[in-house]
Amino acid sequence: MLPQELIRLKRDGQPLAAADIKTFIQGIADDRISDAQIGAFTMAVFLNGMSREEVVALTTATRDSGHVMQWDSLNLPGPVVDKHSTGGVGDLVSLVLGPWVAACGAFVPMISGRGLGHTGGTLDKLESIPGYDPYPAPERFGDVVKSTGVAIIGQTGNLAPADKRIYGVRDVTATVESIPLITASILGKKLASGLDALVMDVKVGSGAFMPTTEKSHELAKSIASVATQAGTPTNALLTDMSQPLAPCAGNAVEIVETLELLRGERPNSRVMQVTRELAVEMLMAGKLAHSREDALSQLEKALTSGAAAEVFARMVRELGGPGDFMERSDSYLAKANVVKPVYAEQTGTVQRIDTRAVGMSVVELGGGRLRNDADVDHSVGFSAIVELGTQVDRQQPLAYVHARSEDAAERAAQQLRAAFTMGEGEASIDELLQKTYRGEAL
Ligand code: URA
């Protein structure tokens, strides 16, 4: 079918056949379809939506538009599983989760991204580690996954190339906020890494990518069922992002926290509760655990024995980082020139946090990007961020700011104060683990 005919059908609210969607998406990857046609198509989808079958077809066509990884030839002695998140602030889950489930026998080829908008990027955090190479050759990637159980790397050129063009056009044609297009975009890339199972972490709250709770639920449901129908069993957890997940936001500061968590410190912190729940899902989906209790007991052992920390250390070493990073991280991680406490203007209880604003403040400190070719300052950010419901006063700061200069620290301190709403009485705190959507096969 000619591209203009497919666009016309969607414009008029008519159903599209899977084969025609596939031809159109392949035409995008091959540069036979113009940006104008992509823009018209995405706007038609934005306005008229897509049936579940159409989203599955769009997802598989996006996945198959480039290289799809195969793991069979490596004869891995365990399942290939991964997790993806819609992103947030202080969301260092991937850094702990990958090594943790690998220490329980899973294989995790994790393709991660850089910071996007107010949300931090796993790759930017890992690049705080001197020498860490997030773009190894494909064979090396496979070798590290096999020998270590996990490799966290960046997206290489030929994975789901159609999405790269479609996303670029959506970004400038006001068509980003469409559940069918977001589903196919996220899953097209993720499923190209040849997974046996996937777990999705969809965030809800003031630091979430989706603008409302209803939209977060809709996306979680869509991702779980579309991925499962596309052949990769997937569950989606809805988790709270109405405050930073870990008590820090930035790059090196999140690596410091990761190392402490992997050493078994603060096992019941909010970030560890979310990480543990995702890990349970991954072990069960990968058939490494026969029950939730079994998964929890394996995870406990992997953490307290130091096995999870050892896997992280090995991944860092295999991907070019220092061999003694775990022991001497302090001498390797960049430190900010200025580190100082930020006190609230008034004493009281933290009632609300504008988490998006905290993330944007980290970007402005230099910890994220204002242009996509800019460098990131790994040393800056916030640490020891207090949680909702904490009583703050002249002794208890809201957080510590890590900045390049006194001026930058002062600007960030003002932004942080403005992001925190103080008051009297108990704060209302949303549930951390809100819901699980289980994918259903056709
Ligand atoms: N992340 C993606 O990869 N794609 C989207 O459409 C939105 C977020």
UniProtKB/TrEMBL annotation:
Q: Name one GO cellular component term.
A: cytosol
- Identify a single GO molecular function assigned to this protein: thymidine phosphorylase activity
GO biological process, any: thymidine metabolic process
Q: Which UniProt keywords apply?
A: Glycosyltransferase, Transferase
SUPFAM superfamilies registered for this protein in UniProt: Nucleoside phosphorylase/phosphoribosyltransferase catalytic domain, Nucleoside phosphorylase/phosphoribosyltransferase N-terminal domain, Pyrimidine nucleoside phosphorylase C-terminal domain
Involved pathway(s): Pyrimidine metabolism; dTMP biosynthesis via salvage pathway; dTMP from thymine: step 1/2
Q: Name all Pyrimidine nucleoside phosphorylase C-terminal domain ranges.
A: 349-423
| Record carries keyword Hydrolase | no
Q: Which InterPro entries match?
A: Glycosyl_Trfase_fam3, Glycosyl_Trfase_fam3_N_dom, Glycosyl_Trfase_fam3_N_dom_sf, Nuc_phospho_transferase, PYNP-like_C_sf, PYNP_C, Pyrmidine_PPas_bac/euk, Pyrmidine_PPase_CS
Could you say which EC number(s) this protein's record lists?
2.4.2.4
- Reactions catalysed according to its record: thymidine + phosphate = 2-deoxy-alpha-D-ribose 1-phosphate + thymine
Q: Which Pfam families match?
A: Glycos_trans_3N, Glycos_transf_3, PYNP_C
Subunit text = Homodimer.
> Which family does the record assign?
Belongs to the thymidine/pyrimidine-nucleoside phosphorylase family.
Known function: The enzymes which catalyze the reversible phosphorolysis of pyrimidine nucleosides are involved in the degradation of these compounds and in their utilization as carbon and energy sources, or in the rescue of pyrimidine bases for nucleotide synthesis.
This one is known as Thymidine phosphorylase
